[in-house]
Every structure is written in C-alpha cells, then in structure tokens.
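Progress note, project year one: complex with nickel (II) ion.
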Amino acid sequence: MNSLEENLREYFEWFHRHPELSYEEYGTTKRIREILEEAGVEILPCNLETGLVAIVRGEKEGPVQALRCDIDALPVREETNLSYASEFEGKMHACGHDFHITAGIGCAILLTKRKSELAGTVKIIFQPAEESSVGALKIMETDVMNGVERIWGLHADPTNETGYVGIREGYVAAAADRFLVTIAGMGCHGAHPDHGVDPIPAAAAMVQAFQTIITRNVDAFHPALLSVTRIEAGQTWNVIPETAELEGTVRTMNREDRALAERRMREIAQSTAQAYGATAQFQWFPGSPAVYNDGEMVNHAVRTAQKQKLQVVPEESSMGGDDFSFYEENIPGCYIKIGTGIGPTIHQPGFRVDERVLLPAVEFLTVLFTDK
Ligand code: NI
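Model obtained:
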C-alpha cells in the first residue's frame, strides 16, 4: 500500500494534468469524489453542478468550521516541462488550485482517521469558479454554510520556499470592483468638431481626474488603486464618434474607501462629461470584498504552524481579489499563504508547486482543526 505522501503526489499530478476552467470542473469533481469515497470520507449531499463538500464529524463537542479549497484552472498555456504537465491545450493550473484540491483531500482523509481527536465538525469545501470570482456565491446559495462558525482558506505562495507559511492579521487581499463609463456626445465630421460634441476629450479628462481620487481623496496610509484598462471610441480617422467608453477596476482594502471611490467616480464622470457638453452613464459592478484575517484565528494558526516546525513569515497583502471574502461577510475567516517554492508568480505559464509541500501542508491544515 502506498504511503499518504505517495498518494498525495499521485492525486496532485493527476489534477495538474487535467486542469478545468471555472464551472467546467466536471472531471475534477468526479476525481475528488472517487478519491474521497475510496478513503471512506463522508460527502455532504448538496446541489452543486461542479465542486463538492466533504464533512468530518468529530467525536467530541466543538465548533463547526470550514476549509475552502478552490478547484478551477486558468486559460494559460503551460510552459513548465514537467513530466505531468497539462494535457488540456491552453489550460493550466497556474494558480496552484491543484495543490489546494490535494491539500483539502489530504486534510479530509486525515481528519476522518483522527475523528476521535476532533472536537466539532469540519466541512471541506471544494469550490468551483474562484477565478471568475463567483464560485463562493454558488456555494452560499446551498445550505453548506449553515451553522459554520469560522472559515479557513489557503493559497499557494511562490514567493516563499516550502516549509514557510505566511500568516498575518488584517486585510490580505483587496476588494475587486469593476466600473464602466459610457460618454455620449454628438458625432460629426472630423473637420467640423464645432458641429457636434466630441466625447473623446471628455474621456481623456476623466482618465486623469479619476486618479485624483487615489491621490487626493483616499487616506495616504490606505492601499487603493484605480486602473482604466479599456478605452474605446470611434471607427475611423475623419469622423468624430457619438460615444466613448472607459472600463477598469478599483481595488481597495477598507470598506469606507470602497464606497468613497464609487461615489467620487460617479461625481467625476457626470461633472466632467457635463463640462465638455456631453453626458455620462456610470456603472459600478461590485466584485468580491476585501479578505480580512481574524486576529484570534491568526494566533491559532501561528501556534499550530510553529508546533509543526513551519517557519511563520508575515503574509504579504495583495491588491488581487479572492472570493473567499464572500464567506467572511457573516463569519470570521483566515486566509493562509503556504510557501510552494520560489519561482514564477501565479498566473504565469512557468508557475509550479514544489511537491515536497504536500504532506506538511496536509498535516498543518489537519492540526489546525484537531488542536485547541
Ligand atoms: Ni488562486
């Protein structure tokens, strides 16, 4: 019989070879189910197209906790030369979710074996569609989160060697919101701008003015950024277009800054358009909120990591988002970064996970739940 470590490697390599995009994780879900069933882990019945939830009921009284493991891959062409590289053209586990799946499986198996030491219940959530930022909401539509008192999350970290874990209290990932501005002017001949209302100067002025929200309105000690990532107007060189569009993203950590950015953008869009004789429609599409690590959970994670002889380092914050934060709207959470060997950053074609991290990560996550 294989050791747990050998099994973990085999699972990990299988998931790496078979990456599936958001909401297409059918093969992944099937494989997770097979492994868990074979290992005698209980699966919680719930209405999910892709993704699934394992449950371990401890033999002692205690809280209901959850571990979130995201399972989807990215539309990235792999360039790692690994023997177990992606077999699906143009798709890759370039964000380490294959590692998260394997860690979740290992944790479910070990916790099931250690039920007698476990106080309370643990739900291990294999969540679909993290990369499209909405998979957490899919889980929350089911009753999986009913009764859950706190939630843990993990992420592969290619800025730290295996054996290091990043843990820190406070905000560790940003709220990721999208905006879209449509400026309406009046089209006319390129040689007679006086016959119409050109939306392009209004769009240009807006791009500049939006940045003053970050430099003039937000507290200088609060991380915040605004990126206009798409600007579109016109079809040809001698016609002034009817409309111009600006699209982009705002990233904030603090709730107040998030509301402030939306309000100021709306004001600037409307008043700038007006100043140029045009009109603007401003749309704000809220994404996932900022991820916040709860102090008490952080302390517990640090103690556990130290007992496991892992090196604890301060977790780096990211202006990237993670839909893990949706779970935290009602309960405390803690999102831990696990060093997977220094290398290309996540979402890059050369990203890889050092397989030596699998067993220690599984032990660490398991002890998080079995240790008081
Ligand atoms: Ni990720």
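The longest helix spans residues 255-275.
The pocket of nickel (II) ion is lined by residues 95, 97, 130, 155 (CB under 6 Å).
No further modelling is planned for this target in the current period.
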